[in-house]
User: Which sequence fits this backbone?
C-alpha cells in the first residue's frame, strides 16, 4: 500500500511539473532570475537597442519640453532619487548623467515600465545588476510618468 | 526520462483504476482512505481553491488558510497586538484598540462572517466578534487588514455575533451575559439579577459602499443569555433568530442552575418591524459610551471616536417585533437552511435536533397560538412552530451547516462526530468521527443561500494524541472532509492558530482578484509622509522629535541622526517608497520598549521611542528585502538631557571619519 501511494504522489508531481507556471514568474527571486536570464540573453529575436516592452517608437523633440521635464522631476523626487544621483556617481543604482546617450529613448521607457522582464532579458540590465546587486524595483510608473522622466533625463544631460 | 515518465503515468493510471477501496478505515489512526492525500494536495506554486478564514479564539486574531491544502497564509491581527506587523504598537494603529475602558490590546474572537449580497458570499469583508469587551470588527478583504472596530454598549460577552442579513444590511450582536444597562446604577447585589439585569441584541447597519458600521438600534430584552444567531433568508428574509439559554435567570453555578428547565428559547426578531418602530420614533435615546474606530487607507492611520447614545427599542412594549420559540435543553446553534424555511435549533444537552418551520411560525403568530409570555414577550407553542425532530442523532448537538442539496451537517461535541441528515425527512444519512470534540463546522457558504458544498471542515477543541506532543499545551486543529460523494471522507488534519472557533470559507476567485498589491505613494495622505528622500527631515518641537524617514532597497534616510537627547519623545515616521508587490520594509531601533514597524509599499507608519540613556542606537530594516538588506541600517546618537549637540541628519554624506572628542 505504502509503495503504491508513493508512486501515486510521484506521478502527481511529474504531472504537475508539465503544467503552466504563469503565476510563478511574477515573484521570482534575484537568484533564480540570474539563472534564467543567462538562457534568455542568447535569444536572437531580442532587440537590445529597444529592450522589451510596449514602447516601439518614442518621438523626442530637437529641443527640450520644459513642462514635461518639470513633471519628470517630480516623479524623480518621489520614486527614483532614493537610488539614483543626477551625477555619474553610483548610489544603489547608476548615476543618471549621460543615460540618454547610453540608451535609446525606447529602451529607457521600456526599462522603467517593464523592469522585471528587462532585468531578466536585457544584457545591459543584467550587467548592471552584477554591479549593483539590487534588482531595480518596479515603481509602477504610468506611461506619462515614464515619458516625463525621459524628458527630465534629457534635461539632466544638457538638452535645451 | 520520457520512458520513466510514461511508465510512471501508466502505474498511476492503474493505481487510480484499481482504486484504494481495500484501505477502509479500521480505527481512529487509519480513518483515512487511500486517495485522501491526492485530494488535499496542492502542488508547490499552485493556488488553493478556497480561502478559509478561521477565528483565532482567545488569540484575538483571524487566520487565513487555503483549502484543500490547509496551508496557513496569514494571521490578521484584529483585537490583539501583533509584534510582527506592529499592529497596536504603531501610532497609526493604536486607536483601533481603543474602547470606553481605554486601550485593550486583546479580545476573545469567536465567529467570523463573510459579507453577502443577495444571500451569497460577495468576498468584500469579513466580520469578527470580540466577546470579552463587546466589539465587532470589519476586515477588508482587499488588504486583509482590520478596517473598523465598533464597541457594543449595554452588552457583555458579545457572543451571538457577528451574523449578518442577506444583503449585509445589518450585523448583529447579542449579549451572552445580561447585566444592568450602562445608564443604570450597576452597583447592585448580584442576586438581584431578575430585577436589575437585562439583555440586548444590537442591529449594526453596514454602509453598502464603505462598509462603515453604525449601531442602528438595540432591542431591550429580559435578562437571559443570548448565544448564537442567524438571519432569515428567502421567505424568512426580514427576520433574525437568536438562541438563548438560562431562562432560569440564574446568577451562579449555571451548569446546574441554568439547566433546570426542559426548554429554553429561540428568539425570533422581525427586524423589518423594528425598522418601522424606529422610523416612527418609538426608540428611546439612551445615553452610554462606546468607541468607534476606523482605519483609513488614505491616511494610513486610525481614528477613534467615543459615541454617547443609542436607540433602544423595548421588546415587551412594541407588539409584533419579538417572539420566543421554546427549544429543548439550552440551545446553542441556531441555523437557517439555504431555502430560509427551516430553522435548526441545537439543544446542547438534548438528545434530538428540533427543526422549526418559518411558515408554521408565521401561522402560529397570526393565530396567536401562544402558551403565554416570558418577560412580556409572547411564547409560541413548541408544536405549533415545530416542523419535526431528528431523533437520537448523537450526543451534544452544537452547530449545523448546509450543502444546498437538502442536507444538513451537524457537529456533536460529546459524541465527537459530524452527522449528515436530510432536512426534509429528518433521517440521518451518514456520520463521521472527529478528533476530538468538534465545536463549529463549516461548509463553504454553508450558512448562505448558495453553499459551495465540496468540503465540510471540523474545528476541534481538543487534539490529544493527534500531533507530536508539545508539552502540556497541544495544538488545536481542523479536519477537512470531502463531501462531494454520499459519504463524508476525511482527507486532511491541519493545526490552527489559537482556538479555531468558527470559520467561513469561499472560492478564492471571489477575493484574490481584488487583492491590493501596494499603496500608491501619490495618494498617501498621512500627516507625516515623506514623498521622496528630498522630504525627509528631523524636526524638534520642545521635547518632541519627529523623524520623517524613508526606506527603499537598501537604505534608510536619514541613516545618521545626532542631537537626540535623553527624555526626548521621538517618533520615527517611516514611509516605504517602494511601489511594487510584496516589498515591505521593517524598522526597529535598539532598546525600544514599544515594538517594531512593518511598512507596506507606499505606506507611512510611525513608532514612538523614549530614549532613556545616552549612547549610540543602531536602527535597521527587519524584513529581509534585498541582497543588501543587511546593509540597510543606521545610527542615532543620544546625548544627555541638557546637551547642546546640534540636530543633524543625513544619508550618504560620506564625511571623512572624525573623532567627535577632537573637535
Assistant:
Amino acid at each position: 500500500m505504502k509503495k503504491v501511494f508513493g508512486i501515486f504522489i510521484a506521478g502527481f508531481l511529474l504531472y504537475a511539473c508539465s503544467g503552466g507556471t504563469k503565476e510563478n514568474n511574477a515573484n521570482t527571486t534575484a537568484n533564480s532570475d540570474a539563472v534564467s536570464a543567462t538562457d534568455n540573453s542568447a535569444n536572437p529575436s531580442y532587440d537590445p537597442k529597444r529592450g522589451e516592452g510596449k514602447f516601439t517608437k518614442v518621438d523626442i523633440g530637437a529641443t527640450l519640453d520644459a513642462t514635461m521635464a518639470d513633471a519628470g522631476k517630480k516623479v524623480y523626487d518621489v520614486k527614483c532619487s532614493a537610488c539614483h544621483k543626477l551625477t555619474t556617481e553610483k548610489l544603489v543604482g547608476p548615476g543618471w548623467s549621460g543615460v540618454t546617450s547610453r540608451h535609446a529613448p525606447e529602451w529607457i521607457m521600456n526599462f522603467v515600465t517593464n523592469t522585471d522582464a528587462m532585468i531578466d532579458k536585457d544584457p545591459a540590465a543584467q550587467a548592471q545588476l552584477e554591479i549593483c546587486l539590487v534588482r531595480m524595483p518596479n515603481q509602477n510608473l504610468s506611461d506619462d510618468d515614464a515619458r516625463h522622466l525621459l524628458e527630465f533625463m534629457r534635461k539632466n544631460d544638457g538638452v535645451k | 526520462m520520457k520512458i520513466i515518465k510514461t511508465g510512471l503515468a501508466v502505474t498511476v493510471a492503474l493505481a487510480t483504476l484499481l482504486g484504494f477501496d481495500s484501505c477502509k478505515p479500521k480505527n481512529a489512526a487509519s480513518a483515512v482512505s487511500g486517495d485522501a492525500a491526492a485530494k488535499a494536495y496542492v502542488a508547490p506554486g499552485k493556488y488553493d481553491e478556497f480561502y478559509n478564514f478561521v477565528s483565532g479564539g482567545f488569540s484575538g486574531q483571524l487566520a487565513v488558510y487555503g483549502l484543500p491544502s490547509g496551508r496557513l497564509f496569514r494571521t490578521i491581527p484584529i483585537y490583539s497586538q501583533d509584534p510582527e506587523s506592529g499592529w497596536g504598537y504603531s501610532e497609526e494603529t493604536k486607536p483601533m484598540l481603543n474602547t470606553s475602558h481605554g486601550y485593550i490590546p486583546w479580545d476573545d474572537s469567536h465567529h467570523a462572517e463573510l459579507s453577502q449580497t443577495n444571500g451569497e458570499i460577495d468576498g468584500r469583508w469579513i466580520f469578527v466578534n470580540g466577546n470579552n469587551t463587546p466589539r465587532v470588527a470589519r476586515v477588508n478583504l482587499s488588504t486583509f487588514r482590520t478596517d473598523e472596530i465598533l464597541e457594543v454598549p449595554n452588552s457583555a460577552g458579545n457572543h451571538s455575533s457577528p451574523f449578518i442579513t442577506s444583503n449585509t444590511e445589518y450585523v448583529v450582536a447579542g449579549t451572552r451575559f445580561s447585566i444592568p444597562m450602562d445608564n443604570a446604577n450597576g452597583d447592585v447585589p448580584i442576586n438581584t439579577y431578575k430585577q436589575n439585569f437585562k439583555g440586548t441584541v444590537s442591529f449594526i447597519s453596514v454602509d453598502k459602499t464603505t462598509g462603515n458600521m453604525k449601531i442602528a438600534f438595540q432591542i431591550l430584552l429580559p435578562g437571559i443569555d443570548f448565544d448564537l444567531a442567524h438571519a432569515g433568508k428567502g421567505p424568512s428574509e426580514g427576520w433574525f433568530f437568536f438562541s438563548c439559554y438560562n431562562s432560569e435567570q440564574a446568577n451562579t453555578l449555571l451548569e446546574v442552575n441554568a439547566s433546570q428547565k426542559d426548554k429554553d428559547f429561540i428568539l425570533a426578531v422581525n427586524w423589518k418591524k423594528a425598522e418601522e418602530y424606529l422610523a416612527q420614533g418609538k426608540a428611546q435615546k439612551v445615553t452610554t459610551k462606546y468607541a468607534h474606530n476606523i482605519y483609513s487607507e488614505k491616511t494610513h492611520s486610525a481614528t477613534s471616536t467615543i459615541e454617547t447614545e443609542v436607540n433602544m427599542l423595548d421588546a415587551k412594549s412594541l407588539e409584533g417585533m419579538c417572539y420566543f420559540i421554546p427549544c429543548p435543553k439550552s440551545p446553542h446553534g441556531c441555523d437557517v437552511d439555504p431555502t430560509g424555511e427551516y430553522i435548526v435549533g441545537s439543544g446542547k444537552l438534548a438528545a434530538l435536533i428540533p427543526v422549526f418551520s418559518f411558515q408554521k411560525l408565521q401561522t402560529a403568530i397570526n393565530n396567536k397560538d401562544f402558551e403565554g409570555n416570558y418577560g412580556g414577550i409572547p411564547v409560541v407553542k413548541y408544536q405549533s412552530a415545530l416542523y419535526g425532530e431528528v431523533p437520537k442523532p448523537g450526543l451534544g448537538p452544537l452547530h449545523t451547516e448546509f450543502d444546498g442539496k437538502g442536507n444538513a451537517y451537524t457537529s456533536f461535541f460529546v459524541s465527537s462526530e459530524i452527522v449528515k441528515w436530510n432536512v426534509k425527512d429528518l433521517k440521518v444519512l451518514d456520520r463521521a468521527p472527529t478528533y476530538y470534540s468538534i465545536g463549529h463546522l463549516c461548509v463553504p457558504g454553508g450558512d448562505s443561500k448558495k453553499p459551495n458544498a465540496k468540503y465540510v471542515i471540523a474545528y476541534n477543541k481538543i487534539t490529544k494524541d493527534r500531533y507530536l506532543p508539545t508539552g502540556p499545551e497541544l495544538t488545536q486543529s481542523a479536519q477537512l472532509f470531502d463531501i462531494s460523494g454520499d459519504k463524508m471522507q476525511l482527507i486532511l488534519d491541519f493545526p490552527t492558530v489559537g482556538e479555531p472557533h468558527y470559520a467561513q470559507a469561499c472560492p478564492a476567485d471571489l477575493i484574490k482578484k481584488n487583492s491590493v498589491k501596494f499603496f500608491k505613494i501619490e495618494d498617501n495622505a498621512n500627516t507625516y509622509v515623506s514623498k521622496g528622500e528630498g522630504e525627509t527631515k528631523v524636526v524638534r518641537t520642545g521635547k518632541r522629535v519627529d523623524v520623517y524617514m524613508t526606506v527603499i532597497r537598501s537604505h534608510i534616510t536619514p541613516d545618521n541622526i545626532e542631537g537626540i537627547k535623553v527624555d526626548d519623545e521621538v517618533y520615527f515616521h517611516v514611509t516605504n517608497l517602494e511601489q511594487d508587490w510584496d516589498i515591505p520594509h521593517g524598522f526597529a531601533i535598539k532598546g525600544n520598549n514599544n515594538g517594531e514597524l512593518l511598512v507596506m509599499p507606499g505606506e507611512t507608519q510611525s513608532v514612538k521611542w523614549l530614549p532613556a540613556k545616552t549612547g549610540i542606537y543602531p536602527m535597521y530594516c527587519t524584513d529581509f528585502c534585498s541582497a543588501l538588506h543587511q546593509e540597510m541600517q543606521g545610527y542615532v546618537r543620544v546625548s544627555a538631557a541638557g546637551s547642546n549637540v546640534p540636530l543633524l541628519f543625513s544619508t550618504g554624506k560620506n564625511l571623512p571619519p572624525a573623532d567627535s572628542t577632537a573637535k
